[in-house]
Amino acid sequence: MSSASTSSAxxxxxxxxxxxxxxxxxxxxxxxxxxxxxxxxxxEERPALHQTGRNSGVLHSGVYxxxxxAKASLAVAxxxxxxxxxxxxxxxxxxxxxxxxxxxxxxxxxLAALYERAASNxxxxxxxxxxxxxxxxxxxxxxxxxxxxxxxxxxxxxxxxALIDEITAAGGELRTGTAVVGLAPAADRVRITTTxxxxxxxxxxxxxxLRCDQVAALAGAAxxxxxxxxxxxxxxxxxxxxxxxxxxxxxxxxxxxxxLGVHLTRMIDGTIHAGPNAVLALAREGYRWxxxxxxxxxxxxxxxxxxxxxxxxxxxxxxxxxxSLNKAAFTRALQRLVPDIEADDLVPSPAGVRAQAMxxxxxxxxxxxxxxxxxxxxVLNAPSPAATSSLEIARMIVDRIDG
Length: 403
Ligand SMILES: Cc1cc2nc3c(=O)[nH]c(=O)nc-3n(C[C@H](O)[C@H](O)[C@H](O)COP(=O)(O)OP(=O)(O)OC[C@H]3O[C@@H](n4cnc5c(N)ncnc54)[C@H](O)[C@@H]3O)c2cc1C
Fold this sequence. Notes:
CATH architecture of the largest domain: 2-Layer Sandwich
Distance between the termini: 8 Å
Bound molecules: flavin-adenine dinucleotide
Number of domains: 2
């Protein structure tokens, strides 16, 4: 990207999306290029309304991810950077640790594999027996568990508020109610059409989350990737039953499925959330079954990769839908971890929708995916643990702009 500041009408950098990735990118860029002009275009009236404001608030330590993957390295580095960011600014967070719990011998074998993976990723973890598990989580049932002390909790919306304060103090501009609807890359800049006027920038970074593939397509840079939205529904434990969970209790994940399975999470405000499950959403921002977009339905029906996936994982998928529609089934999934939880202990809590990319071969993309095109960078896959990793994802994006 050109290092000189552009004309008064143009920005040095335009960022699409004021979720945590877009904000972290603008923040990193201004830290590296003081005095440059940065404009963030956000479609909604407020920042962080989608994935960033609707997640589990976990600072992941990096146990699950394939060694050598971007997720593994950026989760480990990103957790440390995020903790430092919060410490320096007095943002509430807590390194409370988590347990991944095996309830039978089959799961014990998978737990042992996870233990190896944690070691490969440089994450400290301890295999603990049922007695030690009972000390950490007295109401949790399990024959063995993996204890990861470095996992933590934070409110990512609070992180975003701090990022915005510092971006605006450094001269950056956040334009809300400004959806990007057209991109025209030229030799030395990109022309950007938005719902509230046009602008030009020397470089553009697309961090549009659930709509990143659509924004990338405006620049001809989607690379065959498309977003498949998966809703994650939550319940919350009623306050009088929140003593059933101290910190974070996770199941051993099903290795054939890209999500972690419903778990119990203490949020930074002290409430205990149960979830998220994973059901195919019928709209990009499909937070309820009733949120249906015809365009999205068409996309699902014509997506061959999705049909293949449905054939391969129909049993798991059907289970997720059943748990979505049936509270008793959701409760039973939680009772595998904490048998004392009853359906009456649970009240619905707002859902989130994951932006999960499908690659050109029709497989769910397992790793983060970022592509660089003419005058622009496109974040094409940034699901969990991308909030944890956001400051390091931003560093990687900005370094590549400089390169
Ligand atoms: C249920 C759930 C639980 C999760 N739990 C965790 C967790 O515990 N820990 C963790 O690390 N990660 C977690 N994640 C993942 C994490 O929340 C996301 O990886 C992260 O928030 C992605 O940030 P983002 O900025 O890419 O996307 P988003 O936060 O979705 O932001 C994208 C922004 O782009 C805007 N936008 C879209 N289109 C346009 C356009 N055309 N013009 C302008 N703006 C546009 C949107 O309005 C939105 O504000 C979870 C995600 C979900 C859904």
